């Protein structure tokens, strides 16, 4: 086992947390060094009991966490869903017309209609992604806030992380140690 040090803070708005994350990234912290509390369902499943407040979990190494993912990654996922379904819809409409000996104009019209249908389905799936994110944020806030953990490597990292977290309205900002399995084992 090895001891890992983390700075931790609770935020009352997604905007404040995102500003803190952006500032951390601008000061040399790596996105892979940041994690958030997982969904209530995942946390309670892992812990084997319900919890009332995220503050109960700030220093609990057993709490389920998720890797921080940028807003751009979510946007890219939504774009990929829409683009893929648009392409597949267009291709699904185009290929049968051409394979059946249809005219190019008819194939292009079919491609447009099929692509439009795929784009519509893709847009609906993108909205579901956005809704899941909004539901996650609302759920976390209903339990007292958004918890952010930031891996620190030395006392300078700890001081910088704590300063940044506090400057963006982080609450209960502190550093703790967490035992993790050693990479040597």
Q: How many E-type strands?
A: 5
In N-to-C order, the SSE pattern is EHEHEHHEHE
Estimate the helix proportion, in percent: 55-70%
Low-confidence stretches: 85-116
Distance from N terminus to C terminus (CA atoms, Å) equals 8 Å
Strand line-up across the major sheet: 3-2-4-1-5
Main sheet makeup: 5 strands, antiparallel
Average pLDDT reading = 76
Q: How would you describe the shape? A: globular
Secondary-structure-based class equals alpha+beta
Strand content: 15-25%
Cα gyration radius (Å):
23 Å
Describe the structure.
The protein has 185 residues and is an alpha+beta fold. Helices cover 55% and strands 18% of the residues. It has five helices and five strands. It has a five-stranded antiparallel sheet with strand order 3-2-4-1-5. The model is unreliable at 85-116 (pLDDT under 50).
């Amino acid at each position: 086992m090895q001891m890992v040090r983390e700075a931790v803070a609770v935020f009352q708005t997604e905007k404040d947390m995102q500003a803190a994350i952006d500032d951390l990234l601008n000061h040399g912290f790596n996105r892979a060094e940041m994690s958030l509390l997982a969904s209530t369902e995942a946390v309670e499943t892992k812990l084997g009991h319900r919890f009332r407040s995220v503050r109960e979990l700030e220093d609990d190494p057993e709490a389920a966490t998720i890797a921080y993912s940028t807003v751009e990654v979510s946007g890219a996922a939504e774009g990929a869903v829409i683009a893929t379904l648009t392409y597949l819809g267009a291709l699904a409409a185009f290929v049968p017309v051409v394979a059946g000996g249809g005219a190019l104009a008819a194939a292009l019209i079919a491609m447009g209609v099929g692509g439009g249908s795929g784009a519509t389905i893709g847009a609906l799936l993108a909205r579901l992604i956005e809704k899941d994110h909004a539901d996650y944020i609302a759920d976390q806030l209903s339990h007292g806030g958004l918890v952010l953990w930031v891996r620190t490597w030395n006392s300078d990292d700890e001081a910088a992380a704590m300063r940044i977290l506090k400057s963006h309205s982080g609450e209960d900002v502190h550093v703790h140690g967490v035992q993790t399995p050693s990479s040597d084992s």
